[in-house]
Amino acid sequence: MDKAERYRDLKAEIDSVVAGETSVTARYATAACILAQAMAPRFFWTGFYVVDPLKPRELVVGPYQGTLGCLRIAFGKGVCGHVAASGEPILVPDVHAFPGHIACDSASNSEVVVPVFDSDGELVAVLDVDSTDLDAFDATDLAGLVAICNSLLVA
Ligand code: SME
Which tens digits make up the pLDDT trace of 94-108? Predict the structure, then answer.
């Protein structure tokens, strides 16, 4: 099975497990778990930073799988904060070359970050996937994760 098919299967699995679930936390936790298990060990850290309703220009860590993550990231800071500010997904082949990268774990070398929007089109979270390898992610990973994030809160 090629990688694009793998992502289609994972999206179907996530959509099916979360169908009817009203807890957003349960949805994020399910997606993080299914992705991390299916893509281990390439996915070294897999999880969500959610927009803090009390501090709307700040992300706070949500459900994740992996080593200890930073608790808070301001919009505009690091890769996650950049995606929160821009609303656009990003592939970062070498995190050490990204201005202002936040090293929660120095073992991370590349990452992909995708925004999550609610049904009103408001940014509510970002999905952050890190790898210990340089250049671990490509356009197929990005597209697969975007598709999963696009249906995560509505399926
Ligand atoms: N790499 C992220 C920080 C979060 S962690 O790596 C878990 C960033 O620069 O936004």
Answer: 999 998 888 888 899
State if residue 141 touches ligand 1 by the CB under 6 angstroms criterion: no
Q: How far is the CA of 15 from the centre of ligand 1 (A)?
A: 26
Give pTM, 2 decimals: 0.96
Q: What Cα–Cα distance (Å) separates residue 11 from each residue in 3, 53, 123, 133, 134?
A: 12, 27, 20, 24, 25
pLDDT at residue 103, as a whole number: 84
Pocket flag, ligand 1, residue 69 (CB < 6 Å): yes
**For the chain, how many structural domains are there in total?**
1
In a domain? residue 155:
no
Q: Is 109 in the pocket of ligand 1 (CB under 6 A)?
A: no
